[in-house]
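Trying the structure run again after the queue cleared.
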Amino acid sequence: MLFDRIHSHAPDKIALCEGDDSVTYEELCDLIDARCLELADVDVLGLALDNGIDWLIWDLAALSANTVCVPIPPFFTRDQINHTILSAGITHMLTPDGMTETGQSRSPGIPAGTAKVTFTSGTTGTPKGVCLPASAMMGVAASIHQILGDDFIQTHACVLPLAVLLENVAGVYAALLAGCTITLTPLEKFGQNYQGLHAILKETRTTSVILVPEILRALMMQVVKNGPLHDLKFIAVGGSRVDPALIGNARHIGLPVYEGYGLSECASVVSMNIPDVDQPGTTGRLLPHVTADISNGEIIIRNPGFLGYIGEPLTGDFATGDLGEINADGYVRVTGRSKNVLITSLGRNISPEWPESALLAQPGIYQAIAFGDGEPHLGALIVPTGPAADISAAVASANAGLPDYAQIKHIRIVAPFTVENGCLTGTGRPRRDVIAKIHTSPVSVPENPMNFYDRLVAETAQQRAALYHVPQLVDGLQGRISRTTYIAYLTEAYHHVKHTVPFLMAMGSRLADEKRWLHKAVIEYLEEEEGHEEWILNDIEAAGGNKEAARAATPNLETQLMVAYNYDYISRKNPVGFLGMVFMLESTSTQIASQGADAVMTGLDLPKSAFTYLFSHGTLDLEHMKFFEKTVNQITDPADQAAIIEVAQNTFRLFANLFEAIPHEGQRKNVA
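Done. Tokens:
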């Protein structure tokens, strides 16, 4: 099937592209035939090359010549490679230095009809050989081609190692059936933590790509920093459970992400969401060639296609070990691995992948591992995305979508989990047994009681997250707004910032005698905040606007409402509550001011003199927040604490409304 399709495509169309090198479909056919001749005496081929044209041609030639191919993942250790050679009986090894004989003979444990042996990295460290016939791989590729069609994908970029079945079969073989151009990049060129991915996808005008969640999160941060990838039409993500919030966040910034589910034993993909047939929170519908159902909560594949493991032939159906369900509309939902289930001391069964995926949907969290077997509450080891990440807020935001028994109650910040330190498999899955040995469970560590500042951060997490999803703010952080929008933002900023000093004076004048100790904080804020509104007017002028017109303008209703709300709360309810507004403004500044200023300045080619307000607040408010945290932690009156939280929650909402009212639709067209 595959080779008939390759022959049927336009002969001069580019099939493979690697840097300046390319291969047409006609040339690909000739190269496959030539390599088949070189494989005449090869029984089992070990393929240990980097991603590139050469890897694919040898792989396709082995498939055509009925030579068993054993791809060697680049992340395998020397011991794992030796195990693979001995286990499969690799007779010839192909490396960058050429092809050499190993002195081995084909393993008698490889079933007849095996076309490829893929070794899973597994969670124990010892690879296990999955024996696949050509029919199983073509079944997956043909199903993906069937549901996506010829025209949907034009250029597929290989980002995962080609030795990973997901890229090899679901990526390459399906793309060749559709007549796509496949772009290939040596893995090291993506850079550490895939920091060069955005640039490569943009340069190659990629329309489809397959990612694991960790690489997706890296790409999302790059898109926020560097702008959208307009050519991308389809991003398949799989490899571990994905929280619907992460899918939503990715789509919000223009990444067309669709979750799927697969297994090496099923030649990669089992189910997949696609455009117009999509249900976030599931892994999509079963591919047309797959039959599956649920038995005792476990996903059972009735026609897995694979022949068994080396030395362990398959007999009957395949029990996946994955817990899940198939809903009435045919969508598959995977909830976790049966062997990973945590049973709390309260008798609750929890797949750790569930709260982990909620944590990993938060922008500030890079990696997370949940613990809590036999404990009353769950804990997590967390790797932040950076030193400025607000982990307390991120955990609170994740917990907001979980029931109490699945919420994370204890955390510990740890160093990253990597393949090198033994904590990850080569495909990025956690080795939980190794991690458990290295790190003491955070549940077993006595927890410091939460201070009021941490409580304030936690109880405003949802409102803060909603603010950060406002399109005007999202695009501003990427520099994708027009000069008109920037000046409109500054104008609204002027009309609420000019009230900061009067707010503080009103608060100070209404404090009860027993709270007069707060006057010191009020005075310090007054000294810092005086005159900032004039900075904003000067920025408007430097950006090409009319600062006097801005001064005389009537602010938007949303701005007026935020100002009026604070005056009313100070005078009518509790003046201490105004510290909630202070928290909202200063925590927002520390998160967005400097980044937004840099992005907009670059995008609009404006002088730095047009950003004095934003740049100053990005720096000033870092110090202000330390002072603020110290101040509010001295507030012990429950009524005052409740007032601060109430005002903070409401002003996050009001500030989001202020941003949404700023003219913005169509502004992206004004930015190159």
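The first strand starts at residue 14 and ends at 18. Worth checking whether this holds up in the mutant runs.
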